[in-house]
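Quick start: what a row looks like.
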Amino acid sequence: MGLVSFGVLLILLAVTWIRYPTLGNQFIDYFQSFAQYGRPVMLPVKLCEPIIFFLGFLGFWNLILAGLRTLTRRGPRGAVSDVVTGLGLLYVAFILLEYTRGAITASLVLPVIVIGLGALIILAVFLRFLIPKKL
């Protein structure tokens, strides 16, 4: 499954690059803005759209991967990790989407993402203890 996931990741990177052809230049401009302000700054809204696209599809892939692991009975604990990873990626994409819509301020984006991911990690640890290594 690892090589399949790597292949999916490469395809998703290429599709994102094709869909957003100026992405490389936008990221360079963004990182250069650090020098102007002397620190990292919040992502501009124009950079959020390709990130949301990428994270959303990668999140869905992790959910599909969890289903494949479950169907083939290859690592129920790995399936839990895949589900939590998928939900985490979709969560970050959702928070960024809400930021682009103006529902969340720039100063709240990072704390809200960190709190949500922390909660998902705690959930994953508890679920891994509850699920046997082999079914």
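That is the whole record. The chain has one domain: 2-130. The chain has five helices and no strands.
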